[in-house]
Design a protein that fits this description.
Elements (H helix, E strand, L loop, with lengths): L2 E11 L4 E10 L2 E6 L8 E4 L4 E4 L1 E6 L12 H10 L2 E6 L10 H14 L3 E4 L15 H7 L4 E2 L8 H14 L3 E3 L4 H4 L4 E2 L2 H6 L3 E2 L2 H17 L3 E3 L5 H12 L4 E5 L1 H5 L21 H13 L4 E2 L8 H4 L16 H10 L6 H6 L3 H6 L15 E11 L18 E11 L2 E5 L2 E2 L1
Parallel strand pairs: 1-4, 1-5, 6-7, 7-8, 9-10, 10-13, 11-12, 13-14, 14-15
Antiparallel strand pairs: 1-2, 2-3, 5-16, 16-17, 17-18, 18-19
Helix pairs in contact: 2-3, 4-7, 7-8, 8-10
Bound molecules: (4S)-2,6-dioxohexahydropyrimidine-4-carboxylic acid.
The site of (4S)-2,6-dioxohexahydropyrimidine-4-carboxylic acid has 11 residues, from loops.
Length: 429
């Protein structure tokens, strides 16, 4: 028998409401049972006593940078970073070089993921040809090739006619339209959140209205098309309110938020720390509180990293010209615990729901549950382990994280994908 028995951990499966000491048996890559006193019958055994056993995390927003920017990340290194963070399935964004706007490129990513990756990779296809924001890509062909959603992430689709047409198409294809909601004109050249810190530093600000305006437009167009619109890395109080209201009115609107927007504010930029330059920007405390409230009340269903690797050539430069983005896969769990669980906003099963079956459902991905027959994907972690991050030890090819040197609590111990142990005792196998 090709099996693996994870014994005696606190098994939390939010989809089924399971929370208790159990064993999990994986046979032939799939969950074969969850219960007490399960017998190994020749399966390899992992002792999970004192640890939490969760479905592997499902991250809807990762930049793997391949093809084209392999100096920042590759499918090989990015999926290893994912595994170290407990992520067993990820959706990768199409702002590669060239962008994922053709079936051949989607096929290329899937082939590389199958041969060089260590977690499940689901590509997101471009909405527009060459991500030019004007001419629609062949969404049906991209879907056929394996795209699970569509986005021009990195930029909003500024052309409302294109958005309208794309929404009609994604509705027919049964997949989400994923918006990077920032109106380029309203951004007005800003490089961080428009507020007290941008004033203090003398940096041009990005108003949160730039996000709200695109979200409002998309909700109107999604309602008309009957489409599912998913707001990527939601960051403003205004857009949380808009999505909440739209959902009450029955519009198929969903949203994800990043761990860094939940934990940090624009004050983290401090003295021009480019590691805290991200799009959309880190905002102020009232926005952060609105994001937490949105996560708690279900307006925001998923937590997604927006793992955005950049090297020193793009980050060790003056703030205005630095690239935006931070890596996030390997700090996902501890940052979420610090932002949501330790202050009492969510309990642990509540957090895990937003990292597992809820995101899986949004993009209709397998996994995220411990149902019998589900993929044998697990994250086994020590909720209490305290450690200090040394960014040089990350599996990601890039080290652009503001959490370097920070004391973190919560550490991934084992990551299992399809019954294969990818991370054992915190190290890649
Ligand atoms: O900060 C960001 N970085 N936001 C994005 O939307 C794109 C990403 C990237 O690709 O670096």
């Amino acid at each position: 028998m090709n099996g693996l028995l994870i014994k005696g951990g606190r098994v939390i499966d939010p989809a089924s409401g399971t929370d208790g000491v159990r064993d999990v048996l994986i046979v032939d890559g799939r969950i074969a049972g969850v219960g007490t006193g399960l017998k190994a019958n020749g399966a390899a055994v992992i002792d999970a006593k004192g640890l939490v056993v969760s479905p592997g995390f499902v991250d809807l927003h990762v930049h793997l940078r391949e093809p084209g920017q392999e100096g920042k990340e590759t499918i090989a290194t990015g999926t290893r970073a994912a595994a170290k963070g407990g992520v067993t399935s990820l959706a990768c964004m199409p702002n590669t070089v060239p962008p994922l706007d053709s079936p051949a490129l989607i096929g290329h990513v899937l082939h590389k993921a199958a041969t060089e990756g260590v977690v499940r990779v689901y590509p997101v296809g471009c909405i527009s040809h060459e991500r030019n924001g004007e001419v629609m890509a062949d969404l049906a062909a991209l879907r056929e090739a394996g795209a699970v959603a569509f986005s021009d992430d990195g930029n909003a689709v500024m052309n409302a006619l294109l958005t309208r047409r794309a929404m009609v198409n994604v509705k027919a294809l049964g997949v989400p339209y994923v918006e990077h909601a920032e109106d380029e004109h309203l951004l007005d050249g800003g490089v961080m959140h428009e507020g007290r810190t941008s004033l203090r530093l003398g940096l041009p600000g990005r108003t949160s209205l730039a996000e709200d305006v695109i979200v409002a437009r998309d909700l109107i167009l999604a309602e008309a098309a009957g489409a599912h619109v998913h707001i990527a890395h939601i960051s403003s109080a205004g857009s949380v309110a808009l999505v909440r209201d739209a959902r009450r009115r029955g519009i198929r609107a969903t949203a994800e938020v990043t761990p860094h927007h939940l934990l940090l504010t624009d004050e983290a930029v401090g003295e021009f720390d480019t590691r805290c330059k991200v799009n959309p920007p880190l905002r102020d405390e009232p926005h952060r509180q609105a994001l937490i409230a949105g996560v708690v009340d279900g307006t925001i269903q998923a937590i997604a990293t927006d793992h955005a690797p950049h090297g020193p050539l793009d980050k060790d430069v003056e703030f205005t010209s630095a690239a935006s983005g931070m890596v996030g896969l390997e700090t996902l769990l501890p940052v979420c615990l610090e932002a949501l669980v330790h202050p009492g906003h969510l309990d642990l099963p509540g957090l895990l729901a937003r990292l597992t079956h809820l995101p899986a459902r949004l993009f209709d991905l397998p996994g995220g549950t411990l149902d019998v027959g589900a993929p044998g994907d697990l994250c086994v972690f020590d909720e209490k382990a305290a450690w200090v991050l040394d960014a040089r030890t990350l599996a990601s090819r890039s080290h652009n994280t503001p959490f370097d040197g920070r004391k973190l609590t919560g550490r991934v111990v084992h990551t299992i994908v399809g019954g294969r142990v990818i991370v054992r005792d915190g190290a890649l196998t």
